[in-house]
């Protein structure tokens, strides 16, 4: 009977350990991006989930998977886009920034060990 209770207890402890380890604050990974089209110095950071952009010490959080709102906001703040402008998702700037963002998010997830 003791052996029968021992296995579920061990599995429960392992489950709790993994849950706590994966929910702790993760180290952030950041990478700098210098826009070739408008000379903006933007940093993209992630702790494992969506992440955010950092420009002039202000954080612009991505709240959707493609991060269009945050990208548009940081481009407006950097003077790369006027407030009424439409972000061109086919521009080299956006494509490069998005690629760096996805890379940083993947690195943060891998570093956390909680994929």
In short:
The chain is of the alpha+beta class and 115 residues long. It has one domain. It is 46% helix and 17% strand.
Please tell me about this protein's structure.
The chain is α+β, with helices and mostly antiparallel strands and 115 residues long. It has one domain. Helices cover 46% and strands 17% of the residues. It has a four-stranded antiparallel beta sheet with strand order 1-2-3-4. Strand 2 and strand 3 form a beta hairpin. The model has no long low-confidence stretch (mean pLDDT 77).
Search tags:
single chain; 115 residues
Largest sheet: 4 strands, antiparallel
Strand content: 15-25%
Structural class: alpha+beta
H/E series: HEEEEHH
Q: Largest beta sheet: what is the strand line-up?
A: 1-2-3-4
Number of domains: 1
Distance between the termini: 36 Å
Helix content: 40-55%
Oligomer: single chain
Number of DSSP E strands: 4
Give the overall shape, derived from the CA principal axes.
Answer: globular
